[in-house]
Every structure is written in structure tokens, then in C-alpha cells.
Amino acid sequence: MWAYSFVVPFVAGKGGLSSNALQAVSPFRPDAAVSDICSSETTELADIDWDSLGFAYVPTDYMYTMKCARGGIFSKGELQRFGNIELNPSAGVLNYGQGLFEGLKAYRKEDGNILLFRPEENALRMKIGAERMCMPSPTVEQFVEAVKATVLANKRWVPPPGKGSLYIRPLLIGTGAVLGVAPAPEYTFLIYVSPVGNYFKEGVAPINLIVEHELHRATPGGTGGVKTIGNYAAVLKAQSIAKAKGYSDVLYLDCVHKKYLEEVSSCNIFVVKDNVISTPAIKGTILPGITRKSVIDVARSQGFQVEERLVVVDELLDADEVFCTGTAVVVSPVGSITYKGKRVSYEEGGFGAVSQQLYTALTRLQMGLTEDKMNWTVGLN
Fold this sequence. Notes:
branched-chain-amino-acid transaminase activity; 8-stranded antiparallel sheet; single chain; alpha+beta; Aminotransferase-like; amino-acid biosynthesis; aminotransferase; D-amino Acid Aminotransferase, Chain A, domain 2
């Protein structure tokens, strides 16, 4: 069957692993695999400018792949040199967008150890998305162990403390060939990683959003509540127009009433008024963000009242603070929102009191700077 080399964001690596090393790597034996790999790799930090990291792709050393036939189970995962993958032109992901992705981060502590943040939540969300997209998925254990193995194999790319994080991108895609509209006959679970800094060019400075009231990212009964790849293609038009006008990103409204807040292109939204924190409820058109969930739990543990409900766009006009949450952005303050030509400004030059408190609490927990009373972090040695 004719196939071609389809370039996803990987750069071909030099050489490869021995067959013994590859056979040793399974999602249930990461220690053996990583020790084989690291024996021939330097454990020193990669030689890059850690102070200049943005949120852009940086090629690393290894990726992880595991395959499964439709109706089967995933097994025999392996680490291999970071490089291109081969896809048939009729692959389900290319023709019909049958694919999901996840995003999570690893942080380096002051003592050199590495922490993951809530990887099992990403595994569970992928399973829910896979069911919606008619795909098999790895078990939670397979997912988490594969993430661990991939991070350890690329540990020299985990930034020094305070310099950023290692962004981890698991993918689940239909790689089998299809012509008619149908689930693919084969699937690939893949993980690659990249060191990153801040998502927005503003860093932790306030971002400026514009409300989009004509284009929409999701519809009731659609796939807005799962992390399918097509959801993000749908935001590119509005986002491109907004950025050309100088805005950081777009805030979307519901497509039925066109008055309720949904989310930003790649993150959830929160509104603060009189120390009450409100965020749009999860009703199938909004991604159930893991950072969103974590911020809600942290806020409630610190005594804040948090409401998950329908939030009307007009509430932005007299809000005290607005902020976004997501794996990439963590907690990002909003400096202004423009809606139908009217610009509303919030905190000048930084976080508001509430968002600052939540940002500090969450990031200190993620980086291992405070006791993890939530049991959210997973240590890698």
C-alpha cells in the first residue's frame, strides 16, 4: 500500500535504539527502558538559552508510540528517536479528523527531581474523548507510565527551576486507512515533548481579549466538550483576525443565545466580582480543563465562593477581575476585554488580588515549592 512520510512536529533524530532496547520499552516497564536509553545519553541539561523560551516547538530526543487495531487493546509501546512518522494518505486523522490530543507539564524542582501535575486526569479525559470519537484508548496506567517514560528519556530538556517547564503532548489518532466516513481500522497513541516558557507573548502581564459574537468554536451536541483536534482548527480564523488587530486572543460566546461566555481559544475563563469567582458551567460545549478544575479546588480550599453557572457577557462590564486558566497559560490575568467596540479594562500592570493568590498557590504546588496536600503531583527520580 502506498504511503508517504507525513511530517508532524518532529525533527528526525540521528541513529536509533537497539532492538533490545525497543523491546524492553513498554508502558509497564519504563524504568528498564529509560535506563537503557540514558546509559548512552548525557544527563546534563540541554545546551539552549533557557531564558529565551517561549511557547514554541523545540525538538527533543525521544518520543513514545503505541498502536492498536480497532476493537483491540493498546500494547507494546516503545520509545524511539524523535522523528517523522509515516501515514497513509487515507489515514482517518487526515481525512476525517479522527484524533485527540492532551497537554500537561513536567517541572524541575530545586533538588533536581521532576514533578508531573495530575497526569491521571489527562488520561481520564482522553478516555472520555476517545469514546466520543469512536476510538480505543490506552488505560490510565498505560497513559501515565508512558508519560513518565517519555519525560525521563528527555529529562535533559526539562528546564531549570523557574525557567519554564517541559510541555508534554500525548496524541491519539486514527492512522488506519479509510475512504468512506467510518472509524479508522488502526490507531496510534504518541507522546512528544518540548521545553516551553510563557504561552502568551505578554508573559504573566495582562492579556487583551476581544469577544467574538459571530464565529463560534462549538455547538450543543458537538465535540466542544472533548479535546479533539478539529476544535482548534475552528478557532484559527477568529484568532488570526483578532491578533492582526493587536488582541492576544478571542473570547467565544454560546452559539444559541450569543450572550453566555464559553471559553477562550485554548483556555477557560473566570470572572471575579466582590470576591466571588464565577466560571461557565461544563455543559458539553466547553472543555473541562484540568487547570480549571484545579483552580476551582484551590479557590474553595482557600475559602472563596466559586460558582459554575451561565455567565452573561454583560457581567464583564463591572467585573473586578477576569482571568484565564489552562495547561499552557496556567493562570493568566486579563487586562482588557473588547465587546462590540466597547473596551473594559481591569487590573493595570499585573494580577488582581484573587488571581494572584490562585496563581501563586497553584504554581508553587506544581513546582514542588509547597506541600502537596491535594496529592496532585507525581515525582520522577
